[in-house]
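ARCHIVE RECORD
Type: protein–small molecule complex
Small molecule: iron/sulfur cluster
Source of inputs: curated submission
Record status: active
Notes field left blank by submitter.
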Amino acid sequence: MNRRLFLQCLGCGATATVLTQTDLLPSALGGIQNACAFDYTKTLSEVEARYYIKRDEGGIECRLCPRHCRATDLERGYCGVRENRGDVYYTLVYGLPCSVNIDPIEKKPLFHFHPGTAAFSLATAGCNANCKFCQNWEISQTRPEQTDNIELPPQNIVDICRSRRVPTIAYTYSEPIIFYEYMYDTAELGHKHDVKSVMITGGYIEPEPLGVLLKTLDAVKVDLKAIREQYYRDIVSAELKPVLDGLVQIKKAGVWLEIVYLVVPTLNDSEQEFVDLARWIKANLGVDTPVHFSRFHPQYLLKNLPPTPLTTLETAWKICKAEGLHYVYLGNVPGHEAESTWCPHCGNAVIARRGYQILQNNLHGNTCKQCGQIIPGVFQ
Amino acid sequence: MSKVVVIRLAEKPDVSGLSEEQYRTLLYHGLSALSDGKPSRQVLSDLMPRGVVGMKTNCLTGRFNSTPTVLIDALTHLLIEAGIKENNIVIWERSNRELTKAGFALNASSFGRRCLGTDTNGVGYSREFYSCGEVNSLVSKVLTDLVDHNINVPILKDHSIAGLSGGIKNMFGAIHNPNKYHLTNCDPYAAQVINLEPLRTKQRLTVMDAVRVQYHGGPGFNPKHVVMYGGIVISADPVAADSIGLKIIEQYRAQNDLPALWQDHRPVKYLQTAAKLGLGIADESRIDLRTIHVDSNGSSKPGELFP
Ligand code: SF4
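STRUCTURE (tokenized, with ligand):
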């Protein structure tokens, strides 16, 4: 992409979204398409992937995520963005995002991480899961040659963030684990220039690459899709255990962590599941870990289910509060009291929100202005 | 019963493969044998009475181990003889890059035989998902919108995950998300993919190139495990065609002291799954296999599957 045009786009007051083939998502381009011109590239990257081994019998085995895909010459892994070429494994999406926006950090959602600031958000094609409810399937469930990609190397991202005073880069929308190399290099470079990085992920990754990556990240939001293996198998096409292990690893590494749980009617919305979820979080991550319950809308392969009733979300909220979790939020219900952060000590609103908007910030540093209670998070 | 014709040169070809002329001869005899003596032009016009005919190639691996351009040229010749207009013939594949690398000349114009990838501007994938069992995919608009009939023209080879890459596996190239369906040796996915509505209803014929057979180390080109078989496999039944293809692969694996695919943890279970879905016959006892040898003068006679 022409960088000058790109900067113009970001400056024109709207989000610059670059998404899939025009016939898949014409509306996503919205007014930007008219306001700015994008130069898409058809070329895929050929940067050697990290975390794979060469097999004695030929071919490679990817060790980035628990799938451990095996690929012989010219074959790709499940995520569709890593390819064996002559027994060298390559990432095909390095520096090639298909979606770029400047979003409020609250949209990720990260509620305890620099509230009210912006995040330069990007994604490439591909994902290592296949959630039947995916809201970004047009980019996550496609191969990179099927999306319109722009050339945006790490240096350009960091330059844009610095010149536009955007404090954070968010790797988001699809599944950043599958563009690990691009994310890692960008985050590392960002740190050298005081630009933070946050990962918005399903958390389905091997411990070793996660451990290395965490050194470059400032916050992680994990979509914990359910607390049942069966759901992960049937609806997500992945496994629960590695995700739970990853959550504990993130917590132990001291990187700020928030969790989102998408409540899907009839599939993961029983009271017992909310109880189990709350107890697991309390026991393994602590009561100060924020949990966001968000509302399902029928799409992709789950068009037959209704949107989540507000009463179900409120049940989840009440159960988690009753189980002792301090920071429980409801997403996609603008105006609800559960959008705000309440001090667990004095009960006052420390951050009052409506949607992604901050209405009031009653924090003094990282303490409640009213009573001095420490509010966990990254606020300064 | 399903009929499968394996037609091969009586003499082993050299490594450069066959000429268009030789392919044409094989196709004349093979198609005729498929229909108990009808001329090839009638066989083709009976199968595809009018409309646009697609030919799905397998061009994953460049010039080696891809559908030969001369086989497609020979088929084009026969289709034109059968009354199909040249511009109503569409060679297609997942991407233009793959077609070009395999030696095909792209042509999306309204003159001459067309040749295009799904990634050609204005083509792309269907808006709606097609579903069967665990498979949910967008399908190439070449198949949904452009062609009325499809001839599957794969190349017979070993596949590191699926075990066999023949006609059924080749149709992974018609969907937008094939990488999601390589688990458990592609079973049941491969069968479910060819059961997606436009794939099932437009499929007319499989013409599988088995001139140079990669019996191990596929799907990429691996000269250590290639044998010159010198034939093609033809059938209107995609499952039966692949079942015979599998027999050929297994024979050469055994001859070269390699374990059978199921012993190599690559059982080709998707053939049974496809049969259960009613897509064709996998049981060899119910396949009417005709093997024909063609000599250097172009005359044919019944022969053995293996020399
Ligand atoms: S990152 Fe991709 S290629 Fe690697 S194991 Fe996971 S899904 Fe497979």
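CURATOR ANNOTATION: Chain B has one domain: 2-302.
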